[in-house]
Write a structure and sequence with these properties.
mainly beta; Neuraminidase; five-stranded antiparallel sheet
Length: 479
């Protein structure tokens, strides 16, 4: 299978039938050894185990964990279910009617920090017959069998436009920070396969869906961004301080926190530090071209402040693409990361953009000399949570202290989860695989529970028709 640039793992038509949810017994997978990058000595061994909590799922795609240990899980075709740590059962609590075309559907889910009290569940989802993806709030009413999702309680906070025909990259990452601000990742909504694996910069008339300058580099467009808002109790939102653009400029949306994104499908917030992490799936070019620019890389980004992260002008450590005329096939000058300028005829926002910021980790289709732990092959980068060990937490399943400070990074295609440690300047100091030798079955969403264990959705071993999708816990071994 060739490297996929867009995260098109959300196949257009999956036909696997819904199956009865069952529980499987825990299986101890093996020893975690302290494999690190750039360190001579290994860490002490620590036992972890992978436990399947529920299987028989149909396109599970997002989850969040409540402070009382309940896991709320979403399937792409609209079902929402709750796994209860007391009953050890996964129960359906409701189902949204969603448009589930090529990369749409129910794509993201996050629980409000006060969920145990107010029951608020935030979803990012397509809507049949309406050309938009919506960020909506619903109320989950507590009760037997996991409760009931009150569909009539829907409050729509944001509407991100879509269109027919449907290009790539819908995004869907959702996360709350410690101040109650909600972050939403939106894809650049641009065709991934019409620019020879390089930056889509086609400005010919009628080719706007092949130009990411109209979205990711457009300060007046919702797409190709990470938006940050503060949801209010009445179903509206306010704009928090510190976003990229102030309110009042018709050419710059005040909701934008990060721009220059391709498809920030999964993101996370480290509450103690305020760091925002996300993975961005890169384009397909296997080799650089002097006339076009660098080869394709997947990226992981981190930031503590609002900014521009480069796409479609730069990739990896700010390697620039060149201006390119798709009609004449003539190349122009490369972009300057200090002063990127959006010159597209399809741009409706500002021309002069903020300086571009590089990724903190990037990797190509082939082996990475800098970070060999990432392997090689098809790529699909996604970011997970940051773990902070607590000696006072009385939990037999919490991760060991050896994982303290690790941010968990995933690759959906390659099936790995890596712990990454960053220094005070947000540079990688080491990488360590979670359950080395274990290939996860396309990890698609990862969260930490209040018990200090990791809760994971495995999409399944194939692109479609999966029978092995599962809700999984990775925790300390009971042995």
């Amino acid at each position: 299978m060739r490297a996929r640039s867009s995260g098109r793992f959300l196949a257009a038509r999956l036909s696997v039938a819904a199956m009865k949810v069952s529980l499987l017994t825990a299986t101890t997978v093996g020893l975690i050894t302290g494999i690190t990058a750039g360190m001579a000595a290994s860490e002490p061994e620590a036992r972890l185990q992978r436990t399947v909590l529920a299987d028989g799922l149909r396109e599970p795609i997002a989850l969040d964990v409540a402070s009382d240990g309940r896991v709320v899980l979403a399937e792409r075709r609209g079902r929402i279910a709750v796994w209860d740590p007391q009953s050890l059962r996964l129960e359906t609590v409701g189902s949204l009617t969603v448009f589930s075309g090529p990369e749409d559907g129910l794509l993201g889910l996050a629980l409000h920090p006060g969920f145990v009290t107010n029951g608020w569940v935030f979803c990012y989802h397509g809507t049949p017959g309406v050309l938009e993806n919506r960020l909506s709030r619903f109320t989950l009413q507590h009760g037997p069998g996991g409760g009931v999702l009150d569909l009539a309680s829907q409050r729509i906070l944001l509407r991100v436009p879509t269109r027919i025909p449907k290009p790539n990259h819908s995004g869907g990452g959702l996360a709350f920070d410690a101040a109650g601000c909600l972050y939403l990742g939106t894809g650049d909504y641009t065709y991934a396969d019409r620019s020879e694996g390089f930056a889509p910069l086609d400005q010919r008339p009628g080719q706007e869906l092949n130009d990411s300058e109209r979205t990711a580099a457009n300060t007046a467009d919702w797409r190709g961004k990470i938006l940050r808002i503060h949801p209010e109790a009445d179903g509206t939102y306010t704009i928090p301080l510190g976003n990229l653009f102030p309110a009042g400029n018709p050419k710059a949306l005040p909701e934008i926190y990060a721009m220059g994104c391709r498809n920030p499908f999964r993101l996370s917030i480290d509450h103690p530090t305020g760091r925002l992490f996300w993975g961005d799936v890169g384009p397909d070019a296997t080799q650089p071209d002097p006339a076009r620019g660098p080869s394709g890389f997947d990226e992981f980004h981190v930031t503590r402040t609002a900014g521009n992260f480069g796409w479609p002008y730069f990739i990896a450590d700010n390697r620039p693409y060149r201006r390119f005329d798709f009609a004449t096939r003539v190349s122009g000058e490369p972009w300057n990361p200090e002063k990127p300028i959006n010159e597209s005829a399809f741009n409706t926002g500002l021309s002069d953009l903020p300086p571009a910021r590089p990724a903190f980790l990037w990797y190509p289709p082939g082996p990475s000399a800098r970070w060999p732990e990432v392997g090689s092959g098809p790529r699909s980068a996604m970011a997970g949570p940051t773990y902070h060990f607590s000696a006072g937490l009385k939990s037999p399943v919490k991760l060991p202290a050896a994982w303290d400070g690790a941010t968990f990074l995933m690759d959906w295609e390659r099936g790995w989860i890596l712990g990454a440690w960053l220094d005070a300047e947000d540079r990688i100091t080491r990488l360590k695989p979670l359950l080395p030798g274990q290939k996860f079955r396309r990890p698609i969403c990862l969260q930490l529970g209040p018990d200090g264990a990791l809760y994971l959705i495995e999409w399944g071993s194939r692109w479609s028709d999966n029978t092995d999708a599962a809700l999984v816990r990775v925790s300390a071994s009971a042995e």
